[in-house]
Design goal:
The protein is an alpha/beta fold. It is built from 19 helices and 27 strands. The strands form five sheets. Strands 3-2-4-1-10-9-11-15 form an eight-stranded antiparallel beta sheet. Strands 5-6-7-8-12-13-14 form a seven-stranded antiparallel beta sheet, with helices on one face. The protein has a five-stranded parallel beta sheet with strand order 19-18-20-21-22, sandwiched between helices. The longest helix has 18 residues. The structure holds 2-deoxy-2-amino glucitol-6-phosphate. 2-deoxy-2-amino glucitol-6-phosphate binds next to helix 10.
Length: 593
């Protein structure tokens, strides 16, 4: 989704903003822009362009500046055009604005306050610049900005520059994240830690309603009541600075290979021998609950499907899984004694934030599992647990999925009756992944032979069904092959009509109890011409199966059975020449509903 970077300091602001925007590329974007103070021309210059950052970089003169703001846009209002790219300039030319989020009442505001001002773009952002231009009159900018912010409905993180005070950056936020970092006399503002940490030694996360002013005098922070407050800075987590691909061609492949290390890190963090190190206040949230509700989106929701099984089997807690975007608008009947467990890699997903508002309004407790402890949801939920996956850059989530499942297992085990040596079982899963990654060379050929059609199916039962759904999402989102994940027994109730010659059906078979039934479904599709690929766990494998993975604890099989699916997706996208780390239309952190 959109990204924001601003810099004020003694080094070249243009360089730092462009570098920050590059670090945000992984979030997904379709156009970019920058504004900076040009001391020679004594003016604020604005450059923007559609497409990749390189297109913008080519437009920039060889200037240096001490103050700049920049933006990468992921279109929500208006097509991908130069006019719709940020920064937006007010109708009087005075204010320059970059914005993340959505202003829901932009049309109503334009009708009320800007009837005579022609719209120059199709965006909701332009209205912010225009309102500032109209309201400021002879008054001060902060007063005008407060008035504008008071009228906005929706979400925003924004940076503003003013041609009359070209050495000043104003920053404000509501619902969308905005972090202010500093090192000595340098200040960097960004919507994401990844962009901040190359410069900043410490940072503060702005709270909703606050406004920051950065100029020669330094940094001043006003809270939501307009009171001048002292910002509290904490050290930057330098893990976010390491964003190179290492020896791998793509972040996705690197992140697939990091999974054994991530699982080991999780057990080191959360398991002391056989004792759980889940914080006591988090474990206490589960005491006496009648029902657990898991809320998440996309891959995180698929991890939640595995979580349901873990909580029901290991902790005997009835568990429901909800798609966050549905829950936010159609919450089910909720009984007393419910606990809400949100899962979000980024901790910024707008659908979850809306769901959390409902949960809080109704007085239910909430816990979030996230990879980003500085995220908005980590702050807004009652408690958080970190999944320790390390920065995940590829849009297609891989190591966050297995990390989420491992932490769900640790948590369910901690609040349940135990019974298994989780430390040992997760360690065996890590070893099984490592073993399978040695076989990576088989995938290019396998994909070449079996994934020729523009559609495919994954099937499985129980936990294998949960993985089939994640496997299908992975394949479709980066290779653009239309893929669906089905319960193996459900195919014959309709979807089997789609099976014809050479259609790939990838079956996941890890569960002893249902292996024979899944084999029947395989026979059914095979007899209708499907090109079947079987991923089997060693203890249920048969002669002729294509991919064999090591047998591990039956409750943890998704940790290993998803690995072939991740590799199939990667190689299918590679063979098709797709942009693996930045698939079309997708964003890493989905901050709009
Ligand atoms: C998965 O590969 C996707 N990138 C997507 O489904 C993602 O899992 C979803 O948008 C949820 O994001 P979150 O975990 O950051 O909340």
């Amino acid at each position: 989704m959109c990204g924001i970077v601003g810099y004020f300091g003694e080094e070249d602001a243009i360089k730092h903003v462009m570098e920050g925007l590059r670090r945000l590329e992984y979030r997904g974007y379709d156009s970019a822009g920058i504004s900076y103070h040009d001391a020679k021309q004594k003016d604020l210059l604005v450059f923007k362009e559609t497409g990749r950052l390189d297109n913008l970089a080519r437009l920039l003169p060889p200037d240096e500046s001490r103050v700049a703001i920049g933006h990468t846009r992921w279109a929500t209002h208006g097509r991908v055009t130069k006019a719709n790219a940020h920064p937006h300039v007010s109708h009087d030319g005075r204010f320059i604005v970059v914005h993340n989020g959505i202003i829901e009442n932009h049309k109503a505001l334009a009708g009320t306050y800007l009837e005579d001002v022609p719209r120059r773009s199709a965006t909701d952002t332009e209205i912010i610049a225009d309102l500032l231009g109209s309201f400021v009159g002879d008054g001060d900018v902060l007063t005008a900005l407060r008035r504008v912010l008071g009228l906005l409905e929706g979400s925003y993180a924004l940076l503003v520059m003013d041609r009359e005070h070209p050495g000043t950056i104003y920053a404000a936020k509501r619902k969308s994240p905005l972090l202010v970092g500093r090192k000595g006399r340098e200040t960097i503002i960004a919507s994401d830690m990844t962009a901040l940490c190359a410069v900043a030694a410490e940072y503060t996360a702005l709270t909703d309603g606050s406004i920051v002013t950065i100029d020669e005098e330094g940094l001043s922070l006003h809270d939501h009541e307009g009171e001048l407050v002292r910002p509290e800075f904490v050290p930057v987590d330098k893990a976010y600075a390491e964003t190179d691909k290492g020896v791998f061609d793509h972040y996705m492949l690197k992140e697939i290979h990091e999974q054994p290390a991530v699982l080991r890190r999780i057990i080191d963090q959360y398991c002391e021998d056989e004792e759980s190190r889940i914080p006591k206040d988090v474990a206490a949230m589960f005491q006496g609950i009648e029902r657990l509700h898991i809320l998440a989106a996309g891959t995180s929701m698929h991890a939640g499907l595995v979580g349901k099984v873990l909580f029901e089997k290991l902790a005997r807690i009835p568990t429901e899984v909800h798609i966050a975007s549905e829950f936010a608008h159609h919450p089910p009947l909720l009984a007393e004694g419910s606990l809400f467990l949100l899962i979000s890699q980024s901790g910024e997903t707008a659908d979850l934030r809306s769901s959390l508002e409902i949960i809080k309004e109704r007085g239910f407790p909430s816990l979030i599992l996230t990879n980003v402890k500085t995220s908005t949801l980590a702050r807004e939920a009652d408690a958080y647990l970190e999944i320790f996956a390390g920065p995940e850059i590829a849009v297609a989530s891989t190591k966050a999925y297995t990390a989420q499942i491992a932490v769900l297992a640790v948590l369910a085990h901690a609040v349940g009756e135990g019974g298994i040596s989780l430390r040992k079982e997760v360690a065996l899963a890590a070893q099984a992944i490592e073993n399978h990654l040695q076989d990576r060379h088989i995938y290019a050929d396998l994909v070449d032979r079996h994934l020729k059609k523009p559609q495919a199916f994954y099937i499985g039962r129980g936990l294998d069904h949960a993985v089939a759904r994640e496997a299908a999402l992975k394949l479709k989102e980066i290779s653009y092959i239309h893929t669906e994940g089905f319960a193996a027994g459900e195919l014959k109730h309709g979807t089997i009509a789609l099976i014809e010659d050479q259609v790939p059906v990838i079956a996941i078979v890890t569960e002893e109890k249902t292996a024979a039934h899944t084999r029947s479904a395989i026979a059914e599709v095979e007899s209708r011409g499907a090109d079947v690929v079987v991923i089997a766990m060693a203890h249920v494998a048969e002669e002729g199966d294509h991919i064999i993975i090591d047998t591990i604890n039956p409750l943890l099989t998704p940790l290993v059975s998803v690995i072939p699916a991740q590799l199939i997706a990667y190689h299918a996208a590679l063979a098709r020449g797709k942009d693996i780390d930045k698939p079309r239309n997708l964003a890493k952190s989905v901050t709009v509903e």
